[in-house]
Specification:
Blueprint: E1 2-8, H1 12-23, E2 29-35, E3 41-47, E4 61-69, E5 76-84, H2 86-109, H3 111-150, E6 158-164
Helix pairs in contact: 2-3
């Protein structure tokens, strides 16, 4: 899970309204908001999936965020974390599990099952590396997208950013 923190010159409600207008319904995203008592909010963003086969292509990242009011007037802390979608993690674990099963069964069955297990293990490693690279690429796209939304003329700009891994 990757984390990203920054401050915005705007009120928490202004930040949420801006994100909601840019990501709300009919924009291809699911944008859920929960408001707290302290003029802060928690939100969740991920791409909308219309067909089951799109889960592997579109819904790779889930963005969880908090919008927190600061002591400074008209300034807001935004904390965002990026997580891999459960289906992607499950796909990788299944491929490694099948490879392990094939290698263990190779003890009983013979050489062909070892070869099948090796192929599955190799495919699992390639899939894991590809998913990790795509995850990093998608995080950068989301950071750029969210920054562009919040840097609009109406809400001034992002003051500073801090990346954490």
């Amino acid at each position: 899970m990757k984390k990203w923190n920054f401050k915005v010159k705007s009120s928490p409600k202004g930040v949420i309204n801006k994100l909601d207008s840019a990501l709300g319904s009919n924009k291809g995203f699911v944008f859920n908001i929960d408001y707290d008592k302290n003029d802060s909010a928690i939100f969740n963003i991920h791409k909308r999936v219309h067909y089951p086969d799109q889960i592997l292509h579109r819904n790779r990242i889930i963005v969880n965020g908090k919008v927190l009011k600061t002591d400074v007037k008209n300034e807001t802390n935004v904390e965002i974390s990026f997580a891999q979608h459960f289906v992607m993690i499950l796909t990788i674990y299944i491929s490694f599990g099948l490879a392990l099963f094939a290698i263990i069964s190779g003890i009983i069955s013979g050489v062909i099952t070892y070869i099948l297990g090796g192929i599955l293990l190799t495919l699992g490693l390639v899939l894991w590396i590809a998913v990790r690279q795509k995850f990093e690429s998608d995080i950068q796209k989301y950071k750029t997208f969210i920054s562009e939304i919040l840097e609009s003329k109406k809400y001034k700009n992002v003051i500073r950013t801090k990346d954490e891994t």
